[in-house]
Amino acid sequence: MLQTRLTDKLGCQYPIVQTAMGWVADPNLVAGSCNAGGFGFLAGATIPPEEMERDLLRVKELTDKPFGVNFHMYQPNAAAIVELVVRHGVRAVSYSRSPGADMIAKLKDAGVVCMPTVGLPKHAIKAVELGADVITVQGGEGGGHTGAIPTTLLLPQVVAAVGDKVPVVAAGGFKDGDGLVAAMSWGADGIAMGTRFLMSKESPVPRETLQRYIECKDPGVIIRSTAMDGLPQRMIMNQLLEKLERAGPLKKLLLAVSNGLAFRKHTGASLIGLLKSAIAMQRDDGLTAAQAIMSANAPMIIQKAMVSGQPDLGVLPSGQVAAVIDELLSCEDLIKGIVEQAEQRLSVLAARAQ
């Protein structure tokens, strides 16, 4: 019942994708997702270059299933990641800011599935023109950087725009089998989930931080804010986000410079490399200079919560679906439950149709 164009493209058992969350989608979570029949993406944007190959090999030690890697074109080691992906036979790459045509061509020539995430139909059309093999569309309910249009309105538009050319994966607000069936009824070939996998037993997120997600029972406090990096991002409201919301432009700029230098130290990137990335983002994404510089805020502030276990000192990227999740399941139990519920729902609908 659940074999789709997506499972054919990715080589996974079920049309369920674990997204690449920075600091969260590590080898253990990726392997757990893949071994359970889904498809996991390793978060390549926050892994130091010298550790990238190590983590790729670690995933291969933990699973013999196909998996993917996430990156974006502006990170200093983007070309190196493409080389590693090709060399190690990684099945797919995901990205939000499209790589250049030359990178996409190299990936496609090597048989790597290119799977960008978009937030508007026009972006989906452009991505397919550039060579995308699969489109993930994230509605406004989704966590991290996200748009304002809800999945229920956005998904059918993207399916109508590109669904006859490539598989479309629905993201933003999904957690169970009923959601998978709903997405498929709108024409999607599968679902992608970040927050639900973040809230799993294989998640590396410290318990102190996970507890904040479990305790969040009001979707209204999981807000979209531009305070952290100048771009709309959905996060759980906490003490740090409140301070950022009140901070003036100068304070935000100083914080961004400080975090940019910290991220440079973590990744080993040169200061010139980071400045080039900011200039490219300003040029290609239409960001202001301040927004491009502020983008350095995200990785290090998120790290405080997701790695250091200090949820009050970092931000908490989250989809609104966190408010209706109250238990941490293993990837195996999570995906098994989604599949069973989806098949039951499809059986009921088929009986009604007859």
> What is the terminal separation in angstroms?
16 Å
Low-confidence stretches: none
State the fourth-level CATH superfamily of the largest domain.
Aldolase class I
Arrangement of strands in the largest sheet = 1-2-3-4-5-6-8-9
Tell me briefly what this model is.
With 354 residues, this protein is α/β, with parallel strands linked by helices. It is built from 16 helices and eleven strands.
What layout of secondary structure does this protein have?
Layout: H1 5-10, E1 16-18, H2 27-35, E2 39-43, H3 49-62, E3 68-70, H4 78-87, E4 92-95, H5 101-109, E5 113-118, H6 121-130, E6 135-138, E7 144-145, H7 151-162, E8 168-171, H8 177-185, E9 190-193, H9 195-198, H10 207-215, E10 222-225, E11 233-236, H11 239-246, H12 249-267, H13 271-284, H14 289-294, H15 297-306, H16 331-353
Parallel strand pairs: 1-2, 1-9, 2-3, 3-4, 4-5, 5-6, 6-8, 8-9
Antiparallel strand pairs: 7-11, 10-11
Helix pairs in contact: 2-3, 6-7, 8-16, 12-15
